[in-house]
């Protein structure tokens, strides 16, 4: 945003994402039972101090959520499986040291995959099972 420094923008983005996450967790699925979100609890706090729930991407049968995520250098990002279908993260991290292939195991139901982004760059990925129609990106600055 014009007139706003990067730190202020990042802080506002984190606060907005946290508010959305809290509002979403307050809503059930309509059957009276609470919605449970699984996140890795033993993950270390990355540079920049981003909580685990704000650096976790949900892998569901309808796509990745969020579809795009921006994190600081040194952040470990998690993909958390929730769907009934099999999915696999595959892509290439385009960073200072060239393209680095990144690939998760094929998982369904539940499971977690993580990758630590140690330099700035762009990670564009998709589901190896469902193709480019199910894709996302992580921007590292």
List keywords for this structure.
about 140 residues; mainly beta; Immunoglobulin-like; 2 domains; 1 helix; 9 strands; globular
Description:
With about 140 residues, the chain is mostly beta strands. The chain folds into 2 domains: about 30 residues; about 90 residues, Cupredoxins -  blue copper proteins (Immunoglobulin-like), CATH 2.60.40. Helices cover about 15% and strands about 40% of the residues. The protein contains 1 helix and 9 strands. The protein is globular and about 40 Å long. The two termini are about 15 Å apart. About 20% of the residues have low confidence.
- In terms of per-residue confidence, which ranges show pLDDT below 50 for 5 or more consecutive residues? 13-39
Q: Please indicate the percent range of residues in DSSP E strands (runs of 2 or more).
A: 35-45%
Overall structural domain count: 2
What is the number of beta strands? 9
CATH fold category name of the largest domain: Immunoglobulin-like
Strand sequence of the main sheet, in spatial order? 3-9-8-5-6
Percent helix, as a range, is: 10-25%
Look at the structure and give the CATH class of the largest domain.
Mainly Beta
Give the biggest sheet: 5 strands, mixed
Gyration radius, rounded: 16 Å
Shape from CA axes?
globular
Give the termini separation: 16 Å
Tell me what the CATH architecture of the largest domain is. Answer: Sandwich
Mean of all residue-level pLDDT scores: 77
Q: Supply the helix-strand structural class.
A: mainly beta
Q: Considering the protein shown, what is the CATH homologous superfamily of the largest domain?
A: Cupredoxins -  blue copper proteins
């Amino acid at each position: 945003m014009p007139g706003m420094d990067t730190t202020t923008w990042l802080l506002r983005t984190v606060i907005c994402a946290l508010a959305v996450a809290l509002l979403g967790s307050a809503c059930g699925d309509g059957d009276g039972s609470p919605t449970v979100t699984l996140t890795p609890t033993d993950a270390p706090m990355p540079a920049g101090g981003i909580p685990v729930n704000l650096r976790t991407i949900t892998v569901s049968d309808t796509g990745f959520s969020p579809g795009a995520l921006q994190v600081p250098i040194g952040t470990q990002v998690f993909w958390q499986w929730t769907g009934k279908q099999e999915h696999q993260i595959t892509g290439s991290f385009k960073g200072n040291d060239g393209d680095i292939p990144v690939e998760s195991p094929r998982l369904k139901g539940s499971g977690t995959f993580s990758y630590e982004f140690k330099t700035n760059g762009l990670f564009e990925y998709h589901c190896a099972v469902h193709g480019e129609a199910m894709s996302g990106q992580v921007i590292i600055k």
